[in-house]
Description:
Elements: E1 4-9, H1 14-25, E2 29-36, E3 47-51, H2 57-64, E4 69-72, H3 85-106, E5 110-114, H4 126-138, E6 145-149, E7 154-155, H5 163-175, E8 186-187, H6 188-200, E9 205-209, H7 211-226
Parallel strand pairs: 1-2, 1-4, 2-3, 4-5, 5-6, 6-9, 7-8
Amino acid sequence: MQTYSALLIGASGLVGSHLVKILLDHPQIHKVTILVRKPIGINHPKLEEKIIDFNELEQFEKAMGTGDFIFSCIGTTMKKVKGDKHLYRQIDFDIPVNGARFGAKAGYKKFMLVSAHLANSKSRIFYSRLKGETDEIVSTFPFQAIHIFRPSFLIGERKEKRWIELTLGKLMERIAAILPGNYKPIQAKTVAEAMLSAALSNQKGTHIYHYQEMNQLIRKLSFSQDNQ
């Protein structure tokens, strides 16, 4: 059985926190490196945690090391950055783009990115435009494969209790059956599983996944695990 090393950016977020556990549990991943601003409190023989300042580009590049897969789950909210669009862009655009640039230079084979279902570089909406721009720039780097995941509303237990999102999440789950496919809410764990499934696939080139495609991917992951 072939095994791989993985690097994860954004291990403390909703998708990232699920993904780090999934990576550590999967037999085909022999090493997991996470780049974080502060410790996440997980000890595991496969895990290497590197505390860095993402704005220090030399430090960031050195911390990338070498490996097979890069998973980018980094993201913030306007509330966290207090409405500062420049700071928002530093986190949601600069970090994944620099991660892709450094990773391609270091010889990583595949890049997996969490985006958003309304990502569109031509959008008048700041968030959608930023996500679209990020997707487009990341797609230019010379990886064997680039997999971009565009979930709608993410469902899962958040470390921070955001009451608006909690209420909206419950509403979205109730009306999910009548929502168009790309707008359906999705479990953060499902996105994380889909990311690993895509990384382990033999697909090359750039691929974009919405609700239906992500659910199809996790069925492939379950199949591969059952037959190892």
